[in-house]
Amino acid sequence: MIHETVVTTVTPDGTPHIAPMGVRHEGDTFVLMPFLPSATYDNVVLTGCAVVNFTTDVRVFAGCVTGRRAWPTVPVHKVPCVRLDDTLAHAELRLVSINGDPQRPALVMQCIALCTDAPFTGFNRAQAAVIEGAVLVSRLAMLPHEKIESEIAYLSIAIGKTAGPREQQAWQWLMEAVNVFYARSAAAARVSTEEAL
Ligand SMILES: Cc1cc2nc3c(=O)[nH]c(=O)nc-3n(C[C@H](O)[C@H](O)[C@H](O)COP(=O)(O)O)c2cc1C
């Protein structure tokens, strides 16, 4: 099973880095699989630690994939790292080994502390839709336009019916990114047509 989480790491000089990441975990073992090049990978290798944040604040997922990475963090206690200030729970991890796939290595990490920071208040369809939308936005250059459009149309139903202010904000950021991407693609296509004439 893969959980969609937010991974926080720090550079050797202590600067926080925040990235949404799918994480597998069983017992005390967590596995992170960053595609290289990756700041998360570099930070884990250089500092030997990371924190996995279990959060329902989907603005962080949508924000990170649209260039908004400055979310408040606070230090954790068992490893020299930070967690999101606003998270339901977090796991403090220490690096055990790296299974070195050249494109997507697996960082095998041991959980040193698993902490609850706030109560879980139930499932929300708009939050799930924002996560799916954030994955689509991170793959705009790889997926056909029609697929993006049809998936957005379906996900918009859950947003319209069940979103609160955070989910609406997150969805707006995602839709802006989609519009900018296709406007730029259309402009680039016009330029190359004009050059060919
Ligand atoms: C829900 C979700 C899950 C993601 N899971 C992964 C993942 O498992 N591995 C990965 O490399 N990127 C994943 N991404 C994309 C990263 O968040 C993004 O590429 C990020 O910048 C990672 O690179 P970095 O370590 O250099 O920050 C995911 C994005 C979203 C929205």
TrEMBL record:
Domain of life: Bacteria
Domain DUF447: 4-112, 124-176
Name the record gives this protein: DUF447 family protein
Species name: Paraburkholderia diazotrophica
InterPro entries membership: DUF447_C, DUF447_N, Split_barrel_FMN-bd
